[in-house]
């Protein structure tokens, strides 16, 4: 069993043309013996965004805090604390912070996909 606070994991920071003001943490992954899924926690600062992209695996996302928008189905959708998202494989998507506070969300991916 592993019990931690997510902030005890050192973040990988992304700040470039594709992703702005994003910190990602692998909180449960291959290194923990997780054979089927990887759990990541992302923080996106105000004005930040993930890259707009597609890939061959699905995502399951739970928004813990903050306000933002997710791009899917060709349009932007509002998200906030408590929002649950399912992003199917090969669907173009992006998440951006639309508020003043940090947007925090948990993201599950299947094993075999890049952990970050």
Description:
The chain has a domain of 67 residues. It contains no helices and nine strands. A hairpin with a 2-residue loop joins strand 5 and strand 6.
Number of strands: 9
Strand content: over 45%
Q: How would you describe the shape?
A: globular
Number of continuous helical runs? 0
Rg (C-alpha, Å)? 13 Å
- Which spans have pLDDT < 50 for at least 5 consecutive residues? none
Structural class of the secondary structure composition? mainly beta
Quick overview:
This protein has 116 residues and is mainly beta. The chain has a domain of 67 residues.
Reconstruct the topology from this structure.
Layout: E1 12-14, E2 20-28, E3 37-49, E4 59-65, E5 67-72, E6 75-80, E7 84-87, E8 94-97, E9 103-110
Task: State the main characteristics.
single chain, 116 residues, mainly beta, 3-stranded antiparallel beta sheet
């Amino acid at each position: 069993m592993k019990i931690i606070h997510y902030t005890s994991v050192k973040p990988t920071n992304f700040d470039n043309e594709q992703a702005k003001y994003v910190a990602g943490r692998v909180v449960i992954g291959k290194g923990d013996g997780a054979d089927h899924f990887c759990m990541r926690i992302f923080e996106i600062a105000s004005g930040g965004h993930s890259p707009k992209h597609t890939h061959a695996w699905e995502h399951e996302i739970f928004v813990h805090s903050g306000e933002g928008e997710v791009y899917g189905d060709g349009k932007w959708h509002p998200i906030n604390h408590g929002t649950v998202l399912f992003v199917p494989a090969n669907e173009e998507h992006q998440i951006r912070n639309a508020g003043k506070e940090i947007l925090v969300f948990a993201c599950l991916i299947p094993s075999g996909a890049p952990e970050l």
